[in-house]
Amino acid sequence: MSVASLGYVLLSSPDLPGWRTFGVDTIGAMDVADDDGGVALKIDDHPFRIRIEPGDEDRLTAIGWEMASKGAYDALRKHFQAMGLAIRDGSPEEAASRCVGEFFATSDPAGNPLEFYHQRIGAGEPFHSPAGVAGFVTGEMGLGHIVIPACGNQEETRDFYAALPGFGLSDDLTITLPDPAIPPIRVYFLHADNPRHHSLALGSIPSPTGVTHIMLEMTNLDDVGRCLDRVQRAGMKLMASLGRHCNDNMLSFYVNGPGNVAIEIGCDGLQLDWEEFQPTVSTVPDHWGHAYQLG
Question: pTM here?
Answer without folding.
Answer: 0.96
